[in-house]
Amino acid sequence: MERFDQINPRVIYLLLAVFLVFPVLKPIGMPISIDPQLTQPVFNWIEGLKPGDIVIFDVAYGGGSDSELGPQLKAWFYHCMRKGVKVVGVAQWDTGAPLAYTAVKEVVAVLESKGISAKEGTDWAYVGYKAGGATVFRAMQDDFWKACGNTDWNQKNFSQSPLLAQVKKWDKATIKGFICYSAGSPGIPTYTTYFPDQDLYVGDVAVQVAGTSNLLRAGQVKGILAGLAGAAQYEKLVGVPGLGVKLMDAQSLGHLVVILLVVLGNVGYRLKMRAGKKRAA
Amino acid sequence: MRKEVPFIISLVFAVWRFCLEAFDKMYNYKLPSGDLLRNASAYAMTFLMCGAALLGTLNLLRIHGNNIRRRRANWIFSAYLLALLIWQIAIGIATSHTGAIYKWPYDAAYLPLDATMFSLLAFYIASAAYRAFRVRNIDAAVMLVVAFLVMLGNVPIGQAVWGRTAFLGGFEGVKNWILRVPNAAGNRALTLGIFLGIMATQSRMLLGIERRHLGQD
Fold first, then answer.
1. Cys staple from A91: which of A56, A97, B5, B166, with CB 3.0 to 4.6 Å?
2. Is residue B172 part of a domain?
3. CB–CB contact B129 A261 (8 Å)
């Protein structure tokens, strides 16, 4: 038992790999419950909107966080289109801008196969990344067209898009809320600093949730999709299980392995300490 | 003069920005073009960022160009970097950022590498947690228990063991309480402390007390 104090790292890596890969290949189907404080408010926000209302999503993540935030964005976008809510996408991270466009296009293909309208320019529009940081985001509030150079992701003029033609500024009458998919900085502070009057929702990487929770309690953030679990819960709420649901079993077992390792390490450590004391006595 | 000129420039712009935010007349001032004054200064930021990107590119060309010319150690990586840099700029200008050729290195190299780096963290964290989480004192024990509760509150297996309908709302209820109460309190204290620190440092810089950022004499 004392040997548990010093398990070879290779054994740890192998154990974790097995417990992560196995449930992906053969899902266990553990029950997923909806977090009433974090996930449910995001769902209720979209459910409470009328068809034709406009919301904005912001891409503040890159490739490293795509496995957590990509499924969140896809489930949320699917929900918006099904509900008839119009969506405009912007990006604070240049590295994440192409990712989100690809993710949205994948969902559009699924929606169209089900006969749900998701026409680019009419039902949704994607502006992508614009250089200038938070100050330019702030300028978007007053003159969205000018701040974006009047061109969307595909270099099309805003006036060519029936949806973007409606979004001249980011006031509360035009925009019915924001969701920022955030993996770091720049991200949430852009909104809490410059758009404190707007309803802000957050798609967060799990590691960042502890830092966003105080904003939730203060009312600065209305709801949080927390990591992959948030994606899985949203997929369940929307009724379209995707990558989030599929990967939750792996995440469960991964967490369990870490807990078991820590417990074993402590058992080994305690026994070793006791044996050491006995020898000394 | 090497220090005075940058100091005066930063002071003027800081005062300008402060007045822009502090006084309503300046905040809502419209230029003859119809733009708000504060937004016009935001577009200046875009121009500055583009200028910084150009400077960064020129700097990379200079440093790595020298590496290649003098055949310094690992000069081949410098050549690789410059070749990719020039290739991406040329293709980006010729075909735009949505072109298939421009996007290929992003999809085929950048994304998989970025995702791989982050995926490896899971293994490092598992190994580090096993090594570091030893209950040596009461503080470590509290941290360990809290870590277990939050971890299990985040995943379905925690729900299966101690569900929401059970005492205290199960793992999820306890996790939410930890995040919303003690964690939020600690986070706010940290945030306020950081903010005060930034304010103090900025004040020192603007008053010219702190000058290290302007370089050595």
1. A97
2. yes
3. yes
- The model's pTM is 0.91
Residue B19 lies in a domain: no
Considering only residues 113 to 132 of chain A, which have any Cβ-Cβ distance to chain B shorter than 8 Å? 130-132
CB contact under 8 A, A95 and B179: no
Residue of A nearest to B151 (CA): A255
In a domain, residue B36? The reply is no
Amino acid identity for residue A265 in this structure: G
What does the pLDDT look like over A141-151, one tens digit per residue? Answer: 889 999 999 99
- The distance in angstroms from the start CA to the end CA of chain B is 11
The rounded percent of chain A whose pLDDT value lies above 70 is: 99
Reported ipTM: the value is: 0.85
pLDDT per residue as tens digits for the range A36-79: 999 999 999 999 999 999 999 999 999 999 999 999 999 999 99
CA pair distance B144, B94, nearest whole angstrom = 55
Residues in chain A: 281
CA dist B40 and A147 (Å) reads 9
Chain A residues in contact with B183 by the CB 8 A cut-off are: 210, 213-214
Q: Which residues of A touch B53 (CB under 8 A)?
A: 131
The domain containing residue B176 runs over which residues? Answer: 133-217
Structural domain count, chain B: 1
In a domain, B195, yes or no: yes
Residues of B in contact with A138 (CB under 8 A): 38-39, 42
Residues of B in contact with A30 (CB under 8 A): 156-157, 159-160
Q: How far apart are CA A251 and CA A20, in angstroms?
A: 7
Nearest-CA neighbor of B86 among B117, B112, B60?
B60
